[in-house]
Amino acid sequence: MKAYRYILLNLFFTVALLSQEQNKTQLDIGQNYRLSPGNYNQYEVSIVVNPNNPNIIFASANTFLLSFISEGIYVTTDGGANWQGNDTCKGEPVTLHSGDPGIVIDKDGKFILTRKGFSAGIYSHYSTDNGITWSNQKIIANEDIAPERAGVVSDFSSSSSYFGRTYVLWVRISQVTPVIYVYTDDGAQTWSLPDTMFIPSQRSVGGELAIDQNGKLFSCWASVTEVSPFTEDFVGFASSSDGGNSWTVKENAFDMNGIAGQLTQKSNIRVNGLPRIAVDSTSGPRSGWIYIVTGQKNLSPAGSDEDIILNRSTDGGLTWSAGIRVNQDQLNNGKIQLFPAVHVDKYGGVNVIFFDDRNTTSDSSGVFLARTDDGGNTWQEFEISDHNFQPKPIAGVAQGKMGDNIGIISANDKLWPVWMDNSINEIYQIWTVPIEISTVGVNEPVQQPAEFSLSQNYPNPFNPSTTIMFSLKEESFVTLKFFDILGREIQTIINEVKPTGEHEVELSTVGHSGLSGIENLPSGIYFYQLKALPTGRQDGSFVQTKKMVLIR
Question: Which of 31, 44, 71, 361 could form a disulfide with 101 if both were Cys (CB 3.0 to 4.6 A apart)?
Answer without folding.
Answer: 71
